[in-house]
Design goal:
With 412 residues, the chain is mainly β. Helix content is 4%, strand content 54%. The protein has helices at 41-48, 253-256, 259-263, and strands at 2-4, 12-18, 23-26, 61-66, 74-75, 79-88, 94-104, 109-111, 119-122, 127-135, 140-151, 157-169, 172-180, 186-194, 200-209, 213-217, 220-223, 226-229, 236-237, 242-251, 267-276, 282-286, 290-291, 300-306, 310-312, 317-325, 332-338, 344-347, 352-357, 362-371, 375-379, 382-386, 391-395, 399-404. The strands form nine sheets. Strands 1, 5, 7, 8, 9, 11 and 12 form a seven-stranded mixed beta sheet that branches. The radius of gyration is 35 Å and the shape is elongated.
Length: 412
């Protein structure tokens, strides 16, 4: 929509046109059988039609391109391009012509003019052309304001503006889910839905992690030397279709030992999405910093660093535990107690002193145990007591192992 501010006749005419890619011209083929009344008339007409493909006249797509017939839709992340032309419709020379293009959004006003200097003179039937570009970063109502000022031969200074209003739409719907592993790893699931009316070619979907994490993409399947995408060779996202991307974030070594720092992290990183639409028109979207709810480990955290998947019945096996003082201020003096369950029996001395553990520090201990019951058994019964505060921390169901009979034939 454009609105002229001034009602008087001006010597100059302003024209603004959005620059977009053309579309493939489509035909509507009409055919009939030879024994029908038209005979081969329809076929002959399609062969003479210059827009059809020779030898494949019944295919809807032709060899020609169609220029845009309307303003079209503009989506967030795309580049808005516009052609601005100022033409001298009068019979006299116009001086000091200044063309200015601003884009007004809901939050700011941007100057898009390539040059802010005035043109000294413009002869009759001549024009001033300019092409502006802007990467759209906000949704909602946008107004392109084009202003022209000039001086007539009599020295009169004139000025007029035109307003072009358009809406910027949301192309993608992005939803994220976080999964916290027993270790400090964080798994991110990103669901991306195409909410436009045309298919997209997904060129890149990557996660830029925060300074504390390294990221591993889990969207490929290893097939020999190269990994194949889980979405296949053709990375197209049809309208209203959804894809799920998975990423694993691991804390960097310099931060992994600082339990208190990792515990307080809420910023994970941001997604960078690049796509292409009609004839290669490119769009890019970056999310804001993704945040997660940091898991609460309390004052003391116990995690398993090493444990076998399968063990033999009534045969001892080792596990390695990591004990972390999550407090940032207080030193702990810990005592370890091991309580047997109906199926799990600990080997060793219960109630042994582990010594003092400084704030945000960790220690590793290896424990021996055995199972008296077959099947999938849960490891429970560890107790840590802080002798300074006389506080006991209980750890049950910290892991599971599969217990099998040592005399059982694995192939049976």
């Amino acid at each position: 929509m454009d609105v002229n501010q001034a009602k008087q006749e001006h010597l100059l005419a302003l024209k603004v046109m959005r620059l977009t890619k053309p579309t493939l011209f489509t035909n509507m083929p009409v055919t009939c059988e030879d024994r029908d009344l038209p005979g081969d008339l329809f076929g002959q007409l399609m062969k003479e039609d210059p827009s059809t493909i020779k030898g494949a006249e019944t295919i809807m797509l032709g060899e020609m391109l169609t220029l845009p017939q309307n303003f079209g839709n503009i989506f967030l992340g795309e580049t808005f391009s516009s052609y601005i032309s100022v033409h001298n419709d009068s019979t006299q020379v116009v001086k000091d012509i200044l063309v200015k293009a601003d884009l007004q959004t809901s939050s700011q006003r941007l100057n898009l003019s390539a040059s802010n200097s005035a043109v000294s003179d413009l002869k009759p039937e001549c024009c001033i052309d300019d092409v502006i570009h802007h990467e759209v970063k906000e949704i909602g109502t946008h107004i392109l304001v084009c202003a022209v000022s000039y001086t007539t031969q009599t020295g009169e200074k004139l000025y007029f503006r035109k307003f072009f209003k358009f809406q910027v739409l949301k192309p993608l719907d992005v939803k994220t889910k976080f999964y916290n592993a027993e270790t400090d790893e964080v798994f991110l699931e990103a669901q991306i839905q195409n909410i436009t009316t045309s298919p997209m070619f997904m060129e890149k979907v990557s996660l830029e992690p925060s300074i504390m994490y390294n990221v591993t993409e889990l969207n490929t399947v290893s097939t020999g030397e190269e990994g194949a995408s889980t979405f296949g060779k053709m990375s197209y996202l049809q309208p209203m279709d959804t894809r799920q991307y998975l990423y694993c974030l691991k804390p960097k070594p310099e931060f992994a030992e600082k339990a208190g720092v990792i515990k307080g992290v809420t910023v994970i990183g941001k997604l960078d999405i690049v796509w292409k639409t009609n004839l290669g028109e490119r769009g890019r979207l970056q999310t804001s910093q993704l945040q997660r709810m940091a898991p609460g480990y309390g004052d003391v955290r116990l995690s398993l660093e090493l444990i076998p998947d399968t063990v033999n019945l009534e045969e001892p096996f080792d596990i390695t535990c990591k004990i972390t003082n999550c407090s940032s201020e207080r030193t702990m003096d810990l005592v370890l107690e091991m309580c047997n369950t109906n199926s799990i029996h600990w080997c060793g001395i219960s109630g042994r002193q582990l010594g003092k553990l400084n704030p945000s520090s960790s220690l590793y201990i290896t424990l021996k145990l055995l199972s008296s019951v077959q099947g999938l058994q849960s490891i429970s019964g560890l107790r840590l007591t802080d002798t300074f505060l006389k506080r006991t921390y209980e750890y049950d169901d910290i892991a599971q192992v599969c217990v099998v009979c040592s005399h059982m034939n694995p192939e049976s």
